[in-house]
Amino acid sequence: MASRTEPSSCSGRGGGGAPGILPLPLLLLAAAALVPRGDGQNLVTEDVTVVEGEVATISCRVKNSDDSVIQLLNPNRQTIYFRDFRPLKDSRFQLVNFSNSELRVSLTNVSVSDEGRYFCQLYTDPPQETYTTITVLVPPRNLMIDIQKETAIEGEEIELNCTAMASRPATTIRWFKGNKELTGKSEVEQWSDMFTVTSQLLLTVGREDDGVPVICLVDHPAVKDLQTQRYLEVMYKPQVQVAQNYPQQGLTREGEPFELTCTALGKPQPTDMKWLRVDDEMPQHVVVSGSNLFISNLNKTDNGTYRCEASNSVGKSYADYMLFVYEPPTTIPPPTTATTTTTPTIITDTTATTEPAVHGFTQLPNSAEELDYGDLSDSRAGDEGSIRAVDHAVIGGVVAVVVFAMLCLLIILGRYFARHKGTYFTHEAKGADDAADADTAIINAEGGQNNSEEKKEYFI
Questions:
Q1: Could you tell me the CA-to-CA distances from 253 to 244, 248, 301, 323, 381 in Å, in that order?
Q2: Which tens digits make up the pLDDT trace of 320-364?
Q3: d(CA 72, CA 83)
Q4: Which residue, 58, 160, 43, 36, is CA-closest to 107?
Q5: DSSP 8-state code for residue 418
Q6: Are 276 and 305 in contact (CB under 8 A)?
Q7: What is the pLDDT of residues 326-338, one digit of tens each?
Q8: How far is it, in rounded angstroms, from Cα 348 to Cα 265?
Q9: Is the pLDDT of residue 148 over 90?
């Protein structure tokens, strides 16, 4: 080194020295040079973080160069580079740049054993030293998910374990089911300088989880987007649905055909499917063919609840259909009423009585179910929907009552006018028949003018 003094044979004052041994003052000076001092304010470097197997670059830089010697040493204080010379026989160290102000060295194929402090030394007066720390990251190996049961049954709780082995530092494990993040419980084990992390997830599965991926994702500075996944396989009992094929719209009426179809989805796929009538025997004229139920001619005896049952190795399920048969539609003639106008007869001193004559006839319908109720989405609950149409029979009855009331009114008016038409006689007219003129008739009238207060008028 530049600060070293070559050994020489010399003697000091007051005595001689042994050959090859430095005098004490020179020895102390050489020791001071070999043990650098100072605060490193003119010598700078940075810490290095590298993933195992990659390349680490160490840089020793001088702020204000004075042509002093730069040296790089490993954690064992072995010289890697002295200026641009490499005394250490390790070909993984390669010189990247050398100048009076910088010494840059690369280390390829970094391993965990390369981790530690590397020293930069600058031989000034006094000498300076600083260090850089190489940190080696090791990504997890053998990331895998272990599932307790390959095939689960709906409603069961299963256990899944995700293990990330031999990582450095310890990794963080996250769980996802589809796009939903779940919470697991992690345990960390350390082997030498490596860490193994195991995360446990307890999951209650349903039929909606069948075929959904469960993802184990790793958060680690040495790796990005490292994950593994397992697809859930869930067995579940059938899900049964009953649909009406015919009639597609409208009511189920007597005399019409009727058909139902049963569908069942399960895992495994249901193999046993049957129809039955709840609380009663199945009518003999009902035809069952696999998943279909057919009635060619509906009648009132078919009313009831029909059930489709399906089963697999997991369990059994069913769906019900409530059938209500309505009366067949009938044709309702429009209400007609004929009115005869009778001229009232004027009768004097008699009482006339006329009976009204009905010249029309309205036929009422036999059933209120003859109305059109539009599109019925589900005739299973046909007896639950309320009929809100106008009843033609009621309208016809109202019209008949109105016509009858009008006829009665005409008869009463005729009798009224007949009673108020005739000849009126008063006491003033007595004796007027024999008078020659009007004045004489007034004078001869019974009572004359003197009895005018007693005049009375009679109505015959």
A1: 14, 13, 12, 10, 14
A2: 999 999 998 876 655 555 444 444 433 333 333 333 333 333 333
A3: 8
A4: 58
A5: H
A6: no
A7: 998 876 655 555 4
A8: 93
A9: no
Which of 116-130, 145-159, 406-420 is predicted with the least confidence, judged by mean pLDDT? 406-420
Contacts of 106 (CB under 8 A, 6+ apart): 55, 56, 57, 58, 93, 94, 96
pLDDT at 402: 93
Q: Are 34 and 121 in contact (CB under 8 A)?
A: no
Scanning the structure block, which residue is given the tokens 């840059």?
A: 104
Q: Tell me the per-residue pLDDT of 406-434, one tens digit each, with 9 for 90 and over.
A: 999 999 988 888 876 655 555 555 555 56
Tens digit of each residue's pLDDT (9 = 90 or more) over 229-261: 999 999 999 999 999 999 987 789 999 999 999
- Specify the residue for token string 């003697």: 11
Of 306, 344, 343, nearest to 324 (Cα)? Answer: 306
Q: What is the full DSSP assignment across 97-155?
A: EE-SSEEEEEE-S--GGG-EEEEEEEE-SS-EEEEEEEEEEB--EEEEEEES-SSEETT
DSSP at 349:
S
Amino acid type, 127: P
> Taking the CA atoms of the chain, what radius of gyration do you get in angstroms?
60
User: Measured between alpha carbons, how far is residue 348 from residues 326, 403, 415 in Å?
Assistant: 62, 30, 12
Q: DSSP letters of 177-243?
A: ETTEEE--EEEEEEETTEEEEEEEEEEE--GGGTT-EEEEEEEETTEEEEEEEEE--EEEEEEEEEE
| 102 token code pair | 């910088």
Sign of CA dihedral 218, 219, 220, 223: positive
Neighbours of 399 (CB within 10 A): 16
